[in-house]
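Collaborator request log, item 7. Partner lab (contact: R.S.) asked for a structural prediction of S1 motif domain-containing protein to inform their binding assays.
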Amino acid sequence: MLNSFKKPDSPVALLVKNSPDLMSMIKEGDLVNGKLLKRAPRKVYFDLGRFGTGVIYGLEFSNAREVLKKLKEGDEVSAKVVSVENDDGYVELSLAGAEKQKSWQVIKELWEKGEELPVKITGANVGGLMAEVEELKAFLPVSQLSNEHYPRVDDGSKEKILEELKKFIGQELKVKILDVNPRTFKFILSEREVTNQNVKEKLTKYKAGDIVEGIVSGVADFGAFVKFADDPEIEGLVHISELDHKLVENPKEVANVNDRVKAKILEINNDRVTLSLKALKADPWLKVEEKYKAGTEINGRVSRFNPFGAFVALDSEIQGLIHVSEFGSVEEMEKQIKEGQNYNFYIEFVKPQEKRIILKLKK
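Returned to partner:
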């Protein structure tokens, strides 16, 4: 019978056997702290405490030569685990990337605690602002800026948005960390999260249906922003469809910055407030049939074309529509009628509930 010899257990194997709960805490990629134990030719050993002995050698030794030269026995460093157990039973370590990984750990802790932190803005693109935290690059999307700092651009021009965002370069903003993923280098900040709590608390005294006084703080192609006069930190949006009962092509026809307005709260969702100006205005469509009747002739001004027809202003509040099918094509329609010109039309039918008056051109 051949004698069988069993290879002695390595220090790491013994540690796993005797204290499996401890080893479950260390894995490749983890950061560990170690004290310099001793030097050997092209090797340096570290005392990792309960994790055993670590070693830096080979290419990792060459890469960290300058750092290692400055260390004395007993000095402590942070290192990254390359292998939990190499062929000699040691925990293989690397100093390369350890500092950056330590930064990611700090960031992750701040994120988990939900702590507020100041950041200096270092750059901008049309999507948002760039910053650095713990020497790591972070991104603050436009959508996560506070109401005060959100770029208000009338026509939605990307060039103008970028111009507004560039004004923040060099400034310090208070933010919270929204999302972190070291593996994909994802590091997202939010200024809204800082102001959210204050706004949410203030909004508890308001409800849908309330009438508020406000000041128009910005106008965009999709509507107008209104700050509450009594609580300027609260800002709501009046969508273009809620500006007036008439068809609004440009919000500036109805609202301009610094206008004082009264608005009705339609909805409060977390820190977002939806407002309406038209809800406080008399609806001209309620009595439209008293003024406009099917089969009668009316004079109106062509206000604009679209792919399915032309809108015709019948008065300052009511518009009718003549369908493109009346002409056969958009091209033919634009030959027969011109924007800004007045023509005589017949009213085909009136639908107050749908806010529609369908017209035919008098020939």
